[in-house]
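Before drawing any conclusions, I looked closely at one protein's amino acid sequence and its backbone structure tokens, quoted below without any editing.
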Amino acid sequence: MALLILILIKDLLLPALMACFLAWIAYQQLDTNRKKLKLDLYNKRFEVYSVTLEFYQELIGEGASTSLVRKFIEKKEVAKFLFYEDPSIYSLLNEMHDKSFKINAANNNRNSPEVRSLLAQEAVDAANWFSPAIKRLSEKMEIFLNI
């Protein structure tokens, strides 16, 4: 009888315990990978937001540098895929990019006073548009930036 119990433990119970333990380890790995994916998405999405804020601040100040404009364009294009659930985020970033041309044109203007005046007014309008647009962007991205 004791031999039968030992055989039963060895042949049935031990493999069942091993299978349960391995299933638990697999579940832990799955959970860890899900959390890592969520964190990676958060980091990439937050980077889009922070580069946009940096772009806005420089643009409104003395004008955005070429390297920052390139970085903003790169992050704007990445946003198309990171925020595919809400395409309005990409549209808003695109509109920011379009408005930035007016501000940069006024900052780099060497034309006649009439053209300068017209460009300056367009730049002021674009700059005034940016502040509420940044707030809208923040609101739209909020659900994506909550872990």
